[in-house]
Amino acid sequence: MPKSICTAVRTTVLAAALAAALPALAAVSVGQAAPAFSATDTGGKTVSLADFKGKHVVLEWVNPGCPFVRKHYDSANLPATQKAAAAKGVVWLAINSTNTGASDYLAPAALAGWMKDKAAAPTATLMDADGRIGRAYGARTTPHLYVIDPQGKLVYAGAIDSKPTANPADIRTATNYVQQALGESLAGKPVSVAQTQAYGCSIKYTD
Asked: Which residues contact 168 (CB under 8 A, 6 or more apart)?
């Protein structure tokens, strides 16, 4: 088997194994109201979901220590998706639920610096070290994405795209589920793929 195929298989199996190893989390379901929350962003400002009532909102769980996250940032795929969403008036909230004792935890200033280095364009990057927001949504991996419509209803939950690997070369041929969901919802259409299996590294919640 060619080396590239072996690598793709290993990363796909790894992503599935990491997701399967996570504890069961209570989670909101697609079609239900998105749980309200407030959190402090990397600049120390309090941001609430209610601040964006009447807008489409994307929630993205992020951890720079995860190779699956780096796949989408080093390739500029996630920053490009963020910018395309912002151009359509969509609010994008990146959320880090990594607990402070984890080896790859980044303090707010360091996380803000990393996002800046990657030319990321979220509306805000929120700190959720106690995991309260992540648990409310049932976020399992980084990345894990959710789309909320202007009525406050969850219309998409799952992976960023259809290729569950850490290989940036796979992005070119992948279906970007978030862009697809936003395009359909913004056009007033039902989201055709409303839920997928998120892939990536397990979120390091507090015990």
From this structure: 71, 74, 75, 77
Say which residues have a Cβ less than 8 Å from residue 53's Cβ, sequence separation at least 6. 150, 152
pTM over 0.90: no
Torsions phi, psi for 81 (to 5 deg) = -65, -40
Closest CA to 91 of 50, 129, 31, 140: 50
Closest CA to 149 of 190, 114, 117, 109: 190
Q: Which of 81, 38, 77, 50 is nearest to 148 (CA)?
A: 50
What domains can you pick out in the chain, each with its CATH number?
Answer: 3-202 (3.40.30.10)
* 63 vs 180: CA distance, rounded Å: 24
Number of residues that make up the chain: 207
Region for 143 from its dihedrals, namely left if φ exceeds 0, alpha if ψ lies in -120 to 50, beta otherwise: beta
User: Nearest to residue 153, comparing CAs of 185, 192, 196?
Assistant: 185
Whether residue 15 has pLDDT greater than 50: no
Q: Are 69 and 166 in contact (CB under 8 A)?
A: no
Q: What is the DSSP letter of 93?
A: E
Question: Is 59 in a helix, a strand, or coil?
Answer: strand
Q: Mean pLDDT over residues 53-61, rounded?
A: 98
Torsion of CA 178, 84, 168, 125, to 10 degrees: -80
pLDDT tens for each residue of 19-53: 434 444 457 899 999 999 999 999 999 999 999 99
